Amino acid sequence: MTGEALARARTCLACHQVNRKQVGPSYQDVAARFAGNPDAVPILANAIRKGGRGQWGAVPMPAQPQVSEAEAAELARWILTLKP
Ligand code: HEC
């Protein structure tokens, strides 16, 4: 599955869009913030599965336990390709 299809299947796109902020930050903004960070994939994969708060605004992201570790890494790699 491509990153985008996986994001759709795991309902990430209910809260995120590629190019504009919705409930969560746009994936382009995430990619821009983490550009050049060698640990970006593990950091983001962990954030995807565990959720997070306080990094982007007042709304927290709930944990996503339906996402496997391999899928989280795949989603993180896809998001990082979206840097504008
Ligand atoms: C219920 C809404 C919601 C869903 C569903 C959701 N997110 Fe999020 N996401 C958020 C919010 C809100 C934030 C910002 C949290 C913060 O400020 O720390 C966020 C943050 C992120 C970040 C940035 C993490 C960081 O540390 O900077 C990534 C990457 C991300 N989400 C990916 C995903 C992926 C992939 C999925 C699907 C498996 C997903 N999100 C599902 C709302 C959501």
Please characterize this protein's 3D structure.
The protein is mostly helical. The chain has one domain: Orthogonal Bundle (Cytochrome Bc1 Complex, Chain D, domain 2). The protein contains 4 helices and no strands. It has helices spanning 3-9, 27-34, 40-50, 69-80. α1 (3-9) packs across α4 (69-80) and α3 packs across α4 (69-80). The longest helix is centred in the last third of the chain and has 12 residues, at 69-80. It is globular and about 25 Å long. The two termini are 23 Å apart. The mean pLDDT is 97. The chain binds heme C. Heme C is lined by residues 7, 10-12, 14-16, 23-25, 30, 44, 47-48, 52-57, 59-62, 64, 67, 75, 79. GO terms for molecular function: electron transfer activity; heme binding; iron ion binding. This is C-type cytochrome. It holds the Pfam family Cytochrom_C. InterPro entries: Cyt_c-like_dom, Cyt_c-like_dom_sf, Cyt_c_ID. Keywords: Electron transport, Heme, Iron, Metal-binding, Transport.
